[in-house]
Q: What sequence folds into this?
């Protein structure tokens, strides 16, 4: 295994850890520069090879996958309103925002090279076609999460708490 993976190292059916080494991502398909993958057998996501490598550098062994699955299912379910200092609606909102926006096409836009134009107010930073793609992707992800919340509240709760813990620990909570 190379010290740092490159786009040519990505393989269909291979499993990779995300940067936090909690979620396992399995590649379903690679089409050109786009990677289609699942996290812990959740619905398919897609991103560029560069964004995938930025968020998922190492391979995951079968032991790693089993450990991540056990850890995901060990998250305690919500049984009553959260006491002060525990999981809040803001925590849930932060996790949904990270899932729907931050860890998707927006990451592809962010992963590009810096432009001096970005430092000048008044210039558009996102093209109309990019904004359309960003909104469609975010809406689709939110719809899947809301469907999961209705169809399997325990699995939704486990996923959203783990996502918040993984990606949003330093985000504002109030």
A:
């Amino acid at each position: 295994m190379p010290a740092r993976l490159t786009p040519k190292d990505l393989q269909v059916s291979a499993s990779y850890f995300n940067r936090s080494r909690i979620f396992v991502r399995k590649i379903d398909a690679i089409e050109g520069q786009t990677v289609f993958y699942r996290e812990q057998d959740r619905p398919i996501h897609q991103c560029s090879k560069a964004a995938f490598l930025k968020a998922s550098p190492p391979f995951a062994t079968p032991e790693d996958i089993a450990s991540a699955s056990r850890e995901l299912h060990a998250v305690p379910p919500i049984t009553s309103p959260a006491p002060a200092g525990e999981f809040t609606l803001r925590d849930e909102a932060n996790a949904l925002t990270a899932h729907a926006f931050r860890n998707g096409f927006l990451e592809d836009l962010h992963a590009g090279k810096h432009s001096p134009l970005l430092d000048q107010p008044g210039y558009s930073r996102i093209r109309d076609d990019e904004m359309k793609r960003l909104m469609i992707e975010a809406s689709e992800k939110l719809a899947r999460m809301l469907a999961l919340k209705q169809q399997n509240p325990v699995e939704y709760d486990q996923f959203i708490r783990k996502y918040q813990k993984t990606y949003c620990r330093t985000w504002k909570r109030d």
